[in-house]
Design brief:
Largest sheet: 8 strands, antiparallel, barrel
Structural class: mainly beta
Helix content: under 10%
Oligomer: single chain
Low-confidence stretches: none
Number of strands: 8
Shape: elongated
Strand order of the largest sheet: 1-2-3-4-5-6-7-8
Amino acid sequence: MRILVGAALVTLATTTAAAEPLPPGSLGAIAGAAAGTGVDANRLGFGYQIGGQAAWQPMLTERRIGWAARWTVAFGTMLGAGAASVGDTLKTLHMDLTLGARVRPGVDPSRYITFRAGAELLRTNQLIPPSMKRAFVGGVASIGIDQYAYGFLFNVDVRVSQIASNGPTVIALMFGAGKTGP
């Protein structure tokens, strides 16, 4: 009998704990500041963006590296835009789909550094020189931090959009908060 009890205790003591899955999805809001860069700084001016995002990033807490997919839509108002021929504001719509990696920098399983790249559609309410178009398709890249807390995913990203396109290049600092879940 003692041998059976001892064997049962050894078996229980040697079982490993399973990693907990992080909530794989999030749906939330974003807001931030944006500006044109380089030759587009005067054409676009500076302004703000507000919108929403949906992300899918399945990962276990024991892993340090994982993947992520995110779709974002943001409406913007650019103030002091030189390209604005009616008034001095330029209205924008940014839609992007990005894929990327998430890396946990330390032992805290709730914080990740993110690297994402993908494609973006930019639409404006007025023609943008020199191409004199209102719709542009180009690349987008971002680097940021994701933080899980209280059933939410908070994130801060620096995004550069319209990479390798004939569209105006925009840099934005975006803040997001989304409810996590399956």
